[in-house]
Amino acid sequence: MPFPTLAAPIAAALAERGYAEPTAVQAAVLEAETAGRDLLVSAQTGSGKTVAYGLAISRDLLGEAERLPAAGLPLALVVAPTRELALQVQTELNWLYARAGGRVISCVGGMDPMTERRQLAHGAHIVVGTPGRLRDHIERGNLRPQSMRAVVLDEADEMLDLGFREDLEAILESLPPERRTLLFSATVPRPIAQLAKNFQRDALRIAAAGEGGQHTDIEYRALSVAPGEMERAVVNTLRYLDPRTAIVFCTTRAAVNRLHGNLVERGFSAVALSGELSQAERTRAMQGLRDGRARVCVATDVAARGLDLPDLALVIHADLPNDPETLLHRSGRTGRAGKKGISALVVPHNRRRIAERLLMGAKVKAEWSPAPSAEEIQAKDVERLAETATAMLDQMPEEADLALGRRLLEGRNPEAIAAALARLLRSHLPAPEELAGPVQYAPRTERGPRAVAPSRDYPQQAPVAVEGVWFRMNVGRSNQADPKWILPFLCHRGHVTREAIGQIRILDRETRFEVAPQLAERFAIAASRPGQDDAHIRIEPAASAGPADRAAHAAGPRAPHAGKPRPAYQARPRAEGAKKRPAASRPPRS
């Protein structure tokens, strides 16, 4: 349906931007029954909330006039939880009110407060800001709210989660009691309902169509990877899908910095976005994405709400979110304004159940598959490069290009020239990564039971029926090697299960062990990539089992504590008058 009757300059701005009909939330706030009333609105992310409340307050600001009066004391206030969202709201309201002569300024943390004070002194129609900075300007007398006709709390639930309740209450208490109060929130938990009860008058509750459901324009994928291969999976996903703009979410600032550095090193045009950056750095990062100088943004959850990037086709969850709501907000950065998008979760094998619970809690279904392999990416490159080359050949060449082409063909094979063009087109592409691939567990029946050096915890077992591939590790008895920690360590380091490990032989300065033949190659690749905590432990293929190992293999596991017999424990004489210790605290006798 078309937009209802609006002021001429507002309608003209919408038409200029290509708005033919309102979204569900925009239509809801423009109903006749909403006129002059406080509103409590819940709508899913990406539903056009900013334009919705811009239209809702236009009646309060313009009335029957077609232009706003000269800028003076602010007429409306918009409060947003983050700097990025506040600046984005300012941009949206600027074009919406440009034809009506509106002046929209921002007051956000991280910017120069003196500059903001001068802007406020010159007058404004709408002020957009973050809670802390707005409260500071009000208390200092820079922002005088006595003329305000409307206030909007955008992402109100997020502001309460971030601890802005006190600032919000101080701001709302300073505003004229007759103003309109519009609360926009993705959800309406009890704290939001209480805030509405305290600061709104007979608020009209609006649940925009689609609340509780999720974006139908977002395709969810779960990419199963081996533990420790998150960054390689991110690289291959970016290369395979090749989006114009993508955002990769990590849970910590350190993870953002590490992944951003690795992507840049591999040849991606990437920027980072996290709370530790200055406002100028964050603004440059966002501008780089909007003008195409960067194609990948690596961010913490500071970018999970309100961030609107043009042509954002892909969201990658490099680290799984902490809860279903964060999953939905992250994913909501794509699939906006009727465009399709992909939300891909990178899921290590050992976190699959966590991912399944997240998806179930978010009420979304994901297609499970391995992360794209290097072979799949290379095949995709061939298709894309062929399309690019075909498009270039279909263009009408200029005479200068034809002359150069004839010169290149002199004495050369046309196939060689075509190959040179292919190399040129491929030269800027980051190299895909080799992944361990999907897990394929070896059935226990093929190899027999695992045997380890016997101890109180590992009694003697039958030897392995089929000899596997032998590896060595530079840790032995002198380094307190013990099967109780060696076996889990090998499984984690080599991305295999316990069934893949055969005999474990702990020597004085090294440990030798077997790996199932069908998994040996994959184990060797994974084990050669240590983590930060175990970089000192080297694992490498053993040249052979060795005569001693083969003899031991045939004879079964050897007895523990080979060599000199362990001396029996002898209690020290107790000093005269000393109390006898309770039996439970005595060292065990051998």
Strands side by side in the biggest sheet = 3-4-2-5-6-1-7
In total, the number of strands is: 18
CATH architecture of the largest domain: 3-Layer(aba) Sandwich
* Distance between the amino and carboxyl termini: 87 Å
Molecular shape: globular
The total number of structural domains is 3
> How does the major sheet shape up?
7 strands, parallel
CATH superfamily of the largest domain: P-loop containing nucleotide triphosphate hydrolases
Secondary-structure class: alpha/beta
Give the low-confidence spans: 439-465, 550-590
Helical fraction equals 25-40%
CATH topology (level 3) name of the largest domain: Rossmann fold
Radius of gyration: 33 Å
Mean pLDDT: 80
Proportion of residues in β-strands: 15-25%
Number of helices: 21
Write the layout of secondary structure elements.
Blueprint: H1 8-16, H2 24-29, E1 39-42, H3 49-56, H4 58-62, E2 76-79, H5 83-97, E3 104-107, H6 113-122, E4 126-129, H7 131-139, E5 150-153, H8 156-161, H9 165-174, E6 180-185, H10 190-199, E7 204-207, E8 218-225, H11 230-241, E9 245-249, H12 253-266, E10 270-273, H13 279-290, E11 296-299, E12 312-317, H14 324-331, E13 341-348, H15 352-362, E14 366-370, H16 374-394, H17 399-409, H18 414-426, E15 469-473, H19 483-494, E16 501-506, E17 511-515, H20 520-527, E18 539-541, H21 546-555
Parallel strand pairs: 1-6, 1-7, 2-4, 2-5, 3-4, 5-6, 8-13, 8-14, 9-11, 9-12, 10-11, 12-13
Antiparallel strand pairs: 15-17, 15-18, 16-17
Helix pairs in contact: 3-5, 7-9, 14-15, 16-18
